[in-house]
Amino acid sequence: MKNLLLFLFFGACFLGVNAQGNETPTQWSLLGNAGTSPRNFLGTTDTMPIIFKTNGVERMRLLSDNSFLGIGTQTPSAPLHLHVTRPGIQQTYPLLSITSSDFPISLFKLTTTSSGKVSLGCTSGGHFNISGPKGELSFSNSGDIEISETVQGTSRFNVSMPLYAQCATINGNSLNNGFKISYTNTNIFLKQQEQGNFNIEGPGGGLTINPNGNIGMNTDNPQQKLHVENGNILIKRTLPKVPFVPSGSLIFDSNSSGQNIYSTWGVEYVNSESEGYGLNFWKSDSTWGIPTKGIACSPILFLEDGGNVGIWKNKPTATLDVGGSFKAASANITGAVIVNTLKAQTATVTGNTYLEGDVGIGTHKPKQKLHVVDGNILISKTSAKAPQSPNGSILFGANITDSSYMGRWGIEYLDGEDNAFGLNFWKPWNYDDGNWMNYALFLSNDGSVGIGKKDPKEKLDINGAIKALKANITDTLTTKVLNCTNATIANLTIKKLNVPSINIDTITTKILKTQTATVTGNSNLNGNVTVGTASQNAQLDINGLLKAKSANITGNVTVKEGSFNLSLGGATGQNLGYGTSYIGFNAVRNNGSWTLEGDGANNGGAVIWSTVGGTINFASIPKSNSNSGSPQILTDNEIKNNVKLQLTSAGVLKAKEVQVSLAGWPDFVFDKDYKLPTLPEVEQFIAKNQHLPNVPSAAEVEANGVNVGEMNAILIQKIEELTLYILDLQKQINELKKQ
Questions:
Q1: What is the reported pLDDT for 292?
Q2: C-alpha to C-alpha distance for 343 and 107, rounded to whole angstroms
Q3: What angle do CA 168, 172, 173 make, to 5 degrees?
């Protein structure tokens, strides 16, 4: 390449020729020279370099002390040194271009860029080849790179730095064999191009992928998707594991969407206190459904390191430990049986049986200790058993001990024992308290119910007192004496009460309702009567609805809701202007002192009261400035000083300020399109109607009164119209002054 550059340059330039030795220099003709000899040369005989210039600017230099030729530089550092100074902002600048008669534009091109990148390439649309003694590197016009072997021998392709490519094809004897490496988006593909095995081999064995997609390890004929021959598969976890989240598992799935890799079954080895120690066959709760075990992947089958097997248990404590139901066609167990649920078509137990969990009869998913579906529970006893023995009973109790093994209550059926026929609710005798009770509740065979009786004569026959939250008696209640020291009844409804006398110290009820109450003797209410409240703050204290045709109340009436109240009472006294009565909003008057309750943040209120002169006063009391959460205590004078509004008997309303809200205001008078009546038109209207336009007449005001807000708006409109008249008069005055 260097020789080609020198030839082109020397053929276009004029140089002096110096002869060697003592020959006299001759002129070099631009039209050609003859009679030259090897002694003729172009150059210098001293230590100076040869310099080539155009337009007075140095373009090329050949050093005198070595064969370094510089183009664009005065200090070449190589046999051929090209230095480019790019003009302006040009991004790509050519260094070398080779053309031919077939490709006059450019056959070969060497360029550099503004970022310092140097490119060597073919621009003619053909191939660019770099050849060596035994091989060739070829760049096609489509962008493919091909490495081929030109001499038989060992082919090598060595790369010591990263190699980047979108696609790479390695061919064998023809284009149809070999393999291809390609990259699309985020996927990398390594593809065999022929219908043969793709092998990756090492010194001790390798990996084979056959045309069916089967992968073989240590075999070149894999029969399944993964075929391992004469070897093991090791799944090892070295990083910390989140409990109950699979890591190092062998996962089984079908039709997976790819969004949840733990969607069905898996096998993994676990070794932690929380998950256990052993081989865990798990199933994800995301598809297992209800009932869930509350963890991400449930241990369905667990093979413990110690040899125990757990089903739904990751810490089995027996050779087979089942955390749920157990079902088998037959089972021969010679030792103890401890299960949560026992299900069998036939089970014969001759000794004691301990069932740790729930028992289901007719169901394999019992919800209680004993769960019966589509069947009955029958408890019976034979005549051989002693009468009134505990056999045949259902017993209830807590903290059962050897001394109180019968519990606290029992239910049994009596068929003539103790001359009783029916279902007996009884309390067994026990060593803890030494008490027992028979016939606490008895349901007779004829449908009668006895309380404290084994032979009820009525539908409800009670041997003792009655206490109820609600009693609805639709017929007459007849008794010789209704004598009650303290009767607490939530709702007592009696159609007719017929009793000679009533003697009640205290009766407390939410509702006391009777259509007719006839008392033929004396009735004494020695204490308070409270309705709807447990507190007894007065002789009649009602927390609820009070309905009466008339009521004479000599004191205050207070209705309380939460922290606040509504009060009605008297407002007598000189300090309130000889008041009569009041309505208090969170304000209660008692002997001239007012109490305003607080809710922790506010303690204000309001009072409306009237006087004997017919004046109505409206007082608004703000919350106190300090300690507003506590009740505020005020005097009559302080209430009177807070009057904000007063209506006298003459109809005069007094207030410090009245604010009226209106929907509009007459600013439209100043609109440029507003038609202002002329003064003659106004004069004509006044003469005819005796009042201004749009202003109500005296008769209208006398009959209908005046709307304060509306009247103020009319007055403003008239003022604005007068303003326009004045402005117009001022203009006329100014014109007259100019004349």
A1: 40
A2: 92
A3: 140
Residue with tokens 């005065």: 74
d(CA 410, CA 415): 16
Q: Residue 733 has which token pair? A: 């005055």
End-to-end, the C-alpha distance of the chain in Å comes to 108
The structure tokens listed for 669 are 């008078």
What is the C-alpha to C-alpha distance for residues 558 and 584, in angstroms, rounded to an integer? 9
State percent of the chain over pLDDT 70: 64
Q: What is the dihedral of CA 645, 647, 648, 649, to 10 degrees?
A: -160
Strands 69-71 and 80-82 turn out to be: parallel
SS3 state at 278: strand
Q: Name beta bridge partners: 96.
A: 110
- For residue 267, give both structure tokens: 């096998």
Helices and strands, number each (H, E), in the chain: 6, 51
- State the Cα–Cα distance between residues 564 and 602, nearest whole angstrom: 10
The answer to whether 580 and 572 are in contact (CB under 8 A) is yes
CA dihedral defined by 570, 574, 576, 578, rounded to 10 degrees? 60
What confidence score (pLDDT) does residue 108 get? 65
Residue 354 contacts residue 340 (beta carbons within 8 Å): no
Residue among 414, 339, 420, 430 at smallest CA distance from 381 = 414
262: how many CB neighbours lie within 10 A of its CB? Answer: 20
Separation of alpha carbons 73 and 52, rounded Å: 11
The helix/strand/coil state of 61 is: strand
What is the distance between the alpha carbons of residues 79 and 66, in angstroms, rounded to a whole number? Answer: 8
User: Which residues contact residue 440 at a Cβ distance below 8 angstroms, ignoring those fewer than 6 apart?
Assistant: 425, 426, 427, 451, 452
| Residues composing the chain | 739
pLDDT band at 98 (very low <50, low <70, confident <90, very high): confident
Q: Are the CB atoms for 536 and 528 separated by under 8 Å?
A: yes
Q: Are 693 and 685 in contact (CB under 8 A)?
A: yes
d(CA 15, CA 28): 7
**CB distance 497 to 514 below 8 Å:** yes
Mean pLDDT across the stretch 460-476?
72
- Are the C-beta atoms of residues 612 and 578 closer than 8 Å to each other? yes
Partners of residue 64 on adjacent β-strands: none
Return d(Cα 534, Cα 530) in angstroms, integer.
7
- Looking at residue 533, what is its pLDDT? 58
Token code pair at residue 266:
């898996």
pLDDT in tens, 212-258: 888 888 888 889 988 988 888 888 887 777 777 777 788 777 665 55
The pTM for the full model equals: 0.32
* Tokens matching residue 323: 């955390």
Judge whether 358 and 367 are in contact, CB under 8 Å. Answer: yes
**Residues 172, 178 contacting (CB under 8 angstroms):** yes
Q: Which strand ranges, in their side-by-side order, compose the sheet holding 50-54? A: 50-54, 57-62, 69-71, 80-82
d(CA 412, CA 407): 14
Q: Which residues contact 731 (CB under 8 A, 6 or more apart)?
A: none
User: How many Å apart are CA 190 and CA 184, to the nearest integer?
Assistant: 12
**Lowest-confidence region among 356-365, 497-506, 548-557:** 497-506
**Residues ≥6 apart with Cβ < 8 Å to 34:** none
Closest CA to 603 of 638, 560, 565: 565
Side chain identity, residue 444: S
Listed in sequence order, the residues at least 6 apart from 532 whose beta carbon sits closer than 8 Å to its beta carbon are 510, 511, 542, 543, 544
